[in-house]
């Protein structure tokens, strides 16, 4: 069954603990945490302090998506704060192999992310080293944007490469996922769907999660 990772970017931060517990009760599989640096993407959000604060509020894995240019200096802090998966952008890491292994050296799972405008070729050499491949279906920086459907063939491509290389990474998609676009992603081979506004924008989070999953 497809996993659902609600993005807390669209949660009410004044009651973040309740928001996280609400989606956990509603059937979420991961909690997706978006860390933005104001350089790689035009927005500033969450740092390790918040990850540390939310860690005791949930048993779910914390899936931390770093939108940080040259993230290496921050990776140990996010790991110590309680991240279970740390993903970095290929576009933001000049020494991607070093960065992926720095994440693994902290004892957490490592993911690689590509933007809609980046081809799968850019991450081919690292696919055997990662636990997760995250394909952005919006240009990162903000919640509530529209799904970019030209990314769908890349889901099929990374699914085929997984077979070919005989490796086991999860395929995650992020941006503009709702009940309609979720179906397209699942058909294309996605294993984990990130959704922010489509879950936290609804009052009944259980129903929102179910309607994304059931498609
Ligand atoms: C975008 C973030 C996403 C965002 C998704 O840069 O990486 O995780 O929160 O939000 P929705 O689901 O509203 O597009
Ligand atoms: Zn994200």
Automatic annotation (TrEMBL):
Source species, domain of life: Bacteria
InterPro entries assigned to the protein according to its UniProt record, in alphabetical order: Aldolase_TIM, Ribul_P_3_epim, Ribul_P_3_epim-like, RibuloseP-bd_barrel
EC top class, as a word: isomerase
Molecular function (Gene Ontology), one example: metal ion binding
Cofactor note: Binds 1 divalent metal cation per subunit.
Cofactors named for this entry: Zn(2+); Co(2+); Mn(2+); a divalent metal cation
NCBIfam families: PRK05581.1-4, rpe
Protein name stated in the entry: Ribulose-phosphate 3-epimerase
Annotated organism of origin: Radiobacillus deserti
């Amino acid at each position: 069954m497809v996993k659902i990772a609600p993005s807390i970017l669209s949660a009410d931060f004044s009651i973040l603990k309740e928001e996280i517990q609400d989606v956990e009760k509603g059937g979420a599989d991961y909690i997706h945490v978006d860390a933005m640096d104001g350089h790689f993407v035009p927005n500033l959000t969450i740092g390790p302090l918040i990850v540390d604060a939310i860690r005791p509020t949930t048993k779910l894995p914390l899936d931390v998506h770093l939108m940080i240019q040259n993230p290496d200096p921050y990776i140990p802090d996010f790991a110590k704060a309680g991240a279970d998966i740390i993903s970095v952008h290929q576009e933001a890491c000049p020494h991607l192999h070093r960065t992926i292994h720095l994440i693994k050296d902290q004892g957490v799972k490592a993911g690689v992310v590509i933007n809609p405008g980046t081809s799968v070729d850019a991450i081919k050499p690292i696919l055997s080293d990662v636990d997760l491949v995250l394909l952005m279906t919006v240009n990162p920086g903000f919640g509530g944007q529209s799904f970019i459907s030209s990314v769908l063939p890349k889901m099929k491509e990374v699914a085929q490469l997984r077979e070919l290389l005989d490796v086991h990474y999860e395929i995650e998609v992020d941006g503009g996922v709702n009940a309609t676009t979720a179906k397209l992603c699942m058909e294309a081979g996605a294993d984990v769907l990130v959704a922010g506004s489509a879950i936290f924008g609804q009052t009944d989070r259980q129903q929102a999660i179910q309607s994304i999953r059931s498609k």
